[in-house]
Amino acid sequence: MGGGHRRWAVAALALGLHGAARVAGAQTDPLEAARAHFERAVTLFEAGDPRAALAEFERAYALSARPSLLFNLGATHQALHEYPEAVDALRRFLAATEGQRSRQRTEAERALRELDGLMARVRVTCDPATATLTLNGRAATGEVLSVGPGRHVIEASAPGHVTQRVEVTVASGDQPSLRLVLPVVPEPVAVAVAPVVSPPAVIPAVIPVAARVQQPARRPWFTRPWVWAVTGGALAVGATITGVAAVGVNDDFQMRVQTDADVDRIATRGRALAVATDVMALGAVAAGVTALVMLARGDAAPTTTSVSVAPSLGGIGVAGRF
Question: Is the pTM above the cut of 0.70?
């Protein structure tokens, strides 16, 4: 605090002490308590602890409500560089002592002129306009806030809106303007929870299956009459050919002399052709009989027919089974 400020603050304390002492001598216990707090405040202020002195002055004013204590409060706030609070206390003092002439009023008026030159004025507008303002943690009113040089915290709040907080640093005589827009608090987004639906029971479908038609077993080729008919015809043709060949060989054999070198070969060939002719002739007969039997039975179950040709003592033998 500068020399001038120190002088008027000490003078204020002395004057306040004088006024409080006069009241204390004539009043009851609350004023005695106020006087005790006042004296402690003076001691603390002179010891260089204005913050503690401020608390004692405030208690003394609460007990006595004497205007002279507002003067002392203004001096202590100025010592703490709390210029807006000092201005407020001094203005309240002048209002409470209006029409009076005293040394305290003269000092208060001079102090206010000095403090006005140190103040900065911050114009604050809010959206919404109903927002509540605080300055350095204390409630503030009006659009123009008077602050001393330095850093200050301004906060705006309103129900249903996001609180805005800003720091501003000003020097003496500054007149900045601030606009604080408080966004609406977003409503919580309801998350739709889909109901848990159990999947429908799966009922196996019964699909009628057409009865499989039992297909008749394919008859083996050898149970078909036409097979045996064709076989018999082929064997008959073969027997005819070999028979003709055998007759030709036999004529050639008859014309040969017994000592001819080709006699044995011709005889062997003739016998082979004769045997082949007999076998094929008998096979043709057997095949033909088999075909006739099958045709006679029609759709009856096939009958196994077997024919065997085997040499016997008297020549070729044929055996058959139906």
Answer: no
Q: Is residue 186 part of a domain?
A: no
Q: Strand, coil or helix: what is 145?
A: strand
Which domain range does residue 293 map to? 221-321
* Beta carbons of 225 and 295 less than 8 angstroms apart: yes
The Cα-based distances of 119 to 8, 122, 169 in angstroms read: 19, 10, 12
Buried b (16+ CB within 10 A) or exposed e, 137-167: eeebeeeebbbbbeebebbbbbeebeebeee
Residues 56, 37: contact at Cβ < 8 Å? yes
**pLDDT over 50 at 241, yes or no:** yes
DSSP codes of every residue in 168-202: EEE-TT---EEEEE-PBPPPPPP-PPPP--PPPP-
Measured CA to CA, the distance from residue 281 to residue 264 in angstroms comes to 26
Sign of the Cα torsion 158, 164, 170, 175 reads negative
Structure tokens at 199: 């999947």
* Domains of the chain: total: 3
pLDDT in tens, 148-174: 888 889 999 999 999 999 999 999 889
CATH code where residue 160 lies: 2.60.40.1120
